[in-house]
Amino acid sequence: MVATAVTASFIPVVPSPDSGKGKQTQSGGGSASLRGLQPRNGLCGGLQVKANAHAPPKVNDTVKVEDDLPSSSPLTHAPRTFINQLPDWSMLLAAITTAFLAAEKQWMMLDWKPRRPDMLVDPFGIGKIVEDGLVFRQNFSIRSYEIGADKTASIETLMNHLQETALNHVKTAGLLGDGFGSTPEMCKKNLIWVVTKMQVVVDRYPKWGDVVQVDTWVSASGKNGMRRDWLVRDAQTGEILTRASSVWVMMNKVTRKLSKIPEEVRGEIGAYFVDSALVVEEDKRKLSKLDDSANFIRTGLSPRWSDLDVNQHVNNVKYIGWILESAPQPLLESHELCAMTLEYRRECGRNSVLDSLTDISGANVGSLADGGLFECKHLLRLEDGAEIVRGRTEWRPKSANNFGVVSQVSAEST
Predict the structure, then answer these.
(1) Is 313 a catalytic residue?
(2) Is residue 103 pLDDT above 90, yes or no?
(3) Is 44 among the catalytic positions?
(4) Which residue range or ranges hold the Acyl-ACP-thioesterase N-terminal domain (predicted)?
(5) Do 217 and 246 contact (CB within 8 A), yes or no?
(6) pLDDT band for position 29 (50/70/90)?
(7) What integer best gives the mean pLDDT of the chain?
(8) Which residue ranges form the domains of the chain, and what is each CATH number?
């Protein structure tokens, strides 16, 4: 009946003179009134539609169903036209649409699909091992909280990226035990890695929103050391931004004394050593010790709880921030650090109180406005005089744009 009503709403039907009357069907001496479907007046432009309801024929039943309807019946078919002879394409169109949507979803999930130049590539992943399984690669997006007043990433940001890739390299290679970068055999013997020397050369600092690609690998350094190198590039252009090299040795985390590399540990890490040239030419100049005659001294520095790593000593990146605490403000405003050499001599604990000393070689603060390169010597020591870190930094004038921004900020603050 519903189908009949729907058909009637689209196909004009001539109303029967007795459209308001119901038909009577006799069955077995009784009478049954079969009600017709009577839509409200005004439906479909005033057309009146009535359909007789018929029960399906039953086997061995005395009910007789009228086979032929009178010509005036409202169920009389309308003349066949071109429109009502067309097939129903809705199901086919729905199937085609579903197929296209499924194909589009699969296409969006593919990693090899073309990318726009402004799309970030793996900004949040832990990276992957490349170059025959010997080099680890990871991308980082420079965040707003990782830049300074000149809109470029800080040296601490770059150093944190280097440390993160080093740990993820060990993790991805399947060598991470329950320690901070320690292998399973190192964990059994209570051994941890400590850095003894770090060299960094910064060709250009990335800006907010840039994506950098960091490659790192390891090699042997003498009999009981390991060298780790890094190469930082612009992920979009491939331009080299930073080069860094470091030397690491093992220390017993219980006795806090240096240790040789056990053969079991060497068997774990030896397969990942790369025989490659130094990414940074080694600076063999001796780092002289500073004393109270240094140009600038900052005292009373102490680590916070958040400065400690899982090995319960101060993270080596924190030392860089403390070293720069004693650098003169005019130097930080007009110049940027372009090279750094650090020698780590002693670890620092949570209850330590430190002094930061800086000396500008062959120059004074008044000559900083003249531009040019400057070299500084640094010392981070405990209050009792025990040395923590010795360092040397090189500084170059900031670019005109950065210098203008910093100068404007300094003028407004004064």
Answers:
(1) yes
(2) no
(3) no
(4) 1-122
(5) no
(6) very low
(7) 78
(8) 117-279 (3.10.129.10), 283-402 (3.10.129.10)
